[in-house]
Amino acid sequence: MKVKNIIGECLVKMGLDNFVDNEQLTVDEQRIIDRLLFNVNVVYREIVSAYLPLVDAREINVENGEFAFENLDDVKILYPIRLESGDMQIKFKSYPTKIVCDYKGRAKLTYAYLPSADFVLLDDIDDARVTAGVIVSGVLAEYYFQNKVFDLAKSFDSDFRDGMARLKYQGRTMFLKERRW
């Protein structure tokens, strides 16, 4: 899905004309597009940090029982998920800038991360797990909250949160333990 299409859909839901494709934009139109683009980045970062994490794995070298996240220059690690060497799971303690464990040598680190760069208007969001409608609802919730239109912000925010809950648990059955009253 294109960021440009998401912003165009936001404009239509706001009751405005879709002026994203116009050659000449007024100052107000450019300001609205810039704020919506900022909110697209805010919403996507919230999605990957709170609902549907981006997960990757890399071979690392653990020295003296520590591995600093700064050794992975091109990645912004949110949190480590698993550390393993071969078939052995390695227990570790996570800190904001490193992990500490009782292991020394090569290991495979699985981690959740943030995207490295912000989206621009002509970019594609290549995340098939998320729908355009959910992102539009989140962007409009942020936009209206910033403009202090709290009724619309609350409405779009509840649509966003409901959509993300459906996407997060899609295809999985949830069981609640039976309780005695």
Tell me what you see in this structure:
- The protein is of the alpha+beta class and 181 residues long.
- Helix content is 39%, strand content 23%.
- The protein has four helices and seven strands.
- The protein has helices spanning 3-13, 27-51, 132-146, 150-168, and strands at residues 54-62, 66-68, 76-85, 88-89, 92-94, 98-101, 105-114.
- A four-stranded antiparallel β-sheet has the order 1-7-3-4.
- It starts with a helix and ends in a 13-residue tail after the last helix.
Give a brief outline of the structure.
It contains 4 helices and 7 strands. The protein has helices spanning 3-13, 27-51, 132-146, 150-168, and strands at 54-62, 66-68, 76-85, 88-89, 92-94, 98-101, 105-114.
Topology order in helix (H) and strand (E) letters: HHEEEEEEEHH
Tell me the number of strands.
7
| Helix percentage range | 25-40%
Beta content comes to: 15-25%
Largest sheet: 4 strands, antiparallel
Strand order in the sheet with the most strands: 1-7-3-4
Mean pLDDT: 91
Number of helices: 4
SSE topology:
Blueprint: H1 3-13, H2 27-51, E1 54-62, E2 66-68, E3 76-85, E4 88-89, E5 92-94, E6 98-101, E7 105-114, H3 132-146, H4 150-168
Antiparallel strand pairs: 1-7, 2-6, 3-4, 3-7, 5-6
Helix pairs in contact: 1-2, 1-3, 2-3, 3-4
Provide keyphrases for this structure.
181 residues; three-stranded antiparallel β-sheet; alpha+beta; globular; four-stranded antiparallel β-sheet
